[in-house]
Amino acid sequence: MDSSEQRAATGFPTPLPWLTRASASPYVPGTPQEIIGNLRALLLSILEDGTIDRPFTWPGSERSVPLRNAAHALGSCGLLTREGRPPRPTLTRAARHFLDSGDELHLIAVLHANVRFMGEALAEVGDGINHTELNKVAGTEYGLSWNSLDQVRRRVYWLRAAGLVEYWTNGRIVATERGREFLERLETADRDRLPHRRPPAPELVELPPLPASLAPALSGMDQAALRSRKRLLGYIAGGVRMDVLARLVNAAVPDITRADFKAFCVEEFGVLESSAEQTLSTLRSLGLLTQVGTDTFAATEYATSCLESDEPVDLVRLLHLHVALLGETLDALENSAPSSALALVLAERYPDIPLTHQDVTRRVALFLETGLAERIGLTVRRTELGAALVRTLPLLRPTNPGPVAHVDAAATPGVPGTPAPAAAGGDPAHNVGSLAAEVVRAAVDSSDYRRFERAVAAAFRVLGVDVETHSGPKRTDAVVELWRSPTERYRIAVEAKTDGAGLVTDQDVRFRRLGEHRTRHTAQGTVLVGPGFDARLVQEAASEKVALLTARELADALVRHARTPLAPRELAALVIRGEADALERTWRAAERRQETLGLVVHTLWKSGNDPVEVRHTTGALGINDIWRETRKTLGTPLDPDETGAALAFLETPFLSGVERRGGGHVITAPPSLIAARLRALATAIESAGEEGPPGDHGPEGTLAPPERPGPVPSGQTSVPHQQQASSNIQASAVRAWAKARGRAVNERGRLPERLVTDYLRARDLE
Hints:
Elements: H1 3-10, H2 35-48, E1 55-57, E2 64-66, H3 67-72, E3 80-83, E4 88-91, H4 93-101, H5 104-114, H6 119-125, H7 131-142, H8 150-161, E5 165-167, E6 173-175, H9 177-184, H10 214-219, H11 223-227, H12 242-251, E7 256-257, H13 258-269, H14 273-285, E8 289-291, E9 296-299, H15 301-309, H16 312-320, H17 326-332, H18 339-349, H19 357-369, E10 373-376, E11 379-382, H20 384-390, H21 428-442, H22 449-462, E12 466-469, E13 478-485, E14 488-496, H23 511-520, E15 525-530, H24 535-543, E16 547-550, H25 551-563, H26 568-571, H27 580-608, H28 611-617, H29 623-630, H30 640-651, E17 658-661, E18 664-667, H31 671-688, H32 731-740, H33 753-762
Parallel strand pairs: 14-15, 15-16
Antiparallel strand pairs: 1-2, 3-4, 5-6, 7-9, 8-9, 10-11, 12-13, 13-14, 17-18
Helix pairs in contact: 7-8, 13-14, 15-16, 18-19, 18-21, 21-22, 21-25, 22-25, 27-30
């Protein structure tokens, strides 16, 4: 029975394709016995008044929440749509049917049609399963790798609410007879054919013929024309969607006055006249409309040909003529990547055309809608249709098309546990972004596996850990050593695997050899780094206690570490199996401390420069005052301990940024000066560290680092690992290299071992 026949037989909606269904389950507060009633109350309230900023009170609750928040928690579950500007939630036909009929089974069928792993969760319950096991099935069999049980619990709540499953006191979820009968009426996904499995061999696709009017324009696009395109897609009433663009262009056939166009937008999309005027300007800049009279506009010849062909690809061809890096973004989607990684790749290729994350997201959304790209989990990749189109488009030549030049040079750490200094004349953020983009790109360059090995090694060096590069037969690719304390180091064998399809499988990895490598290099653990991993490999890695790290995760860690550096002992969670949640908590806490410090400084500065505050309180604020001033700025208001810690730090003689006055604190220096003092302290620490850690004095009076210690006897301590320099390195070359990067270096005497080691790493001579 096909989908249409099944729908006719059951009365249930046909499930959307797997990739277009939402991964997040709708959330409604309450117990399983309450959530359907609470959902009904919310839908009735929206039906009565969809104003999103008004308060809404859940049944049985004493506190109200903005309707916006309650509606947002439903997500894309098939019950609400958003229309107008500002957008207002309105009920879908399915939601109205539920309100009229009260049919709980139809409600679950609607959720199943729009949300992944809803009916599939019911199918996997079988004779009984617990939440942890069900979450594991969602990850291994359906490609839904959730870090907590929250999403599984939400789905089970809905199934319990409709009487489809029961939750027993032993923690088992068991299907009811009603649930088994309901399941027979559902069309569930075939887990063996889901996109997270290794993709099949590409099929040849045929592009729609190029409209005659578009052909000369595309063939005439030279590099200057490609470079002059506009970065912004611009505002369009109703959004940048194919159906919306078609309606707007059709309205201008044969022509339309400015007043009529604005009236059309106001009536069709519920926007203001000013928004309609902005839409008109955007359509003209995109080459869809042109002015044909004093105040009259018409569809361009290009736009008319796109309407006549009724092919979304033609509209993308037209937009490529006017929108910067549109086809180039599709070209960069050759391999699966999230929008954040894609933005890094584009920034590396086209540094003089900066696209924001929102710019990239809007381009990707256009490709998803037109079938030129597809979403797999949290990543996006172009389809065969997208690949075929890219091959026919004129593209801007990348400024830097290849891998990051000398990635090791951008990845030489100064002191273990600190971010690497920037290359001479370079922007540290750009260097880190370039390396992060290289990690993501190299992971899918199966023609040059050493490129990925170099990028991974460089990434770990930027993270501030010692790296030994090996590679070769019977050897691991690298070993990272994390200095956790004077008496403890943690060695991890690193195995880097590339795959052109973006998915490393269990056929690509021999876990027995990973164990041999671990033993050979006296490592305590192994981390496998790759573009992505299939379900079977994830299972086997868990049983072998091997940590998995995707290239995207490593790239994200680079960018995050540049903003908020962590110590090696904290970063150890990145390469230890099952520690992802601990790493996330550590990073969030560190970022929270940074945010707290900035808020406290600027709040005190504002108070110290407010004449009213100065007259009444001399500008002094207590902890409670700071809480009151900052509580609307943060989602979670400052805790007194957080504020107290920030004040204590600012009060130290090293900063002298605040001082006590009465029962509060006053600021004693502008925020810019406090920041300058922090930078000066950092410079002092880095300068003092140029000569290495305390050790024996060399024959010429310079500090010589100690030899690498063996096992540390009880009661003794060790210092961070310092590698010995090669004897054939010319001191003049090292000094010239250091000066070019702004690093302090002595003109005579023995060179610091750390400096020599960094030089070797930068030249890839280790």
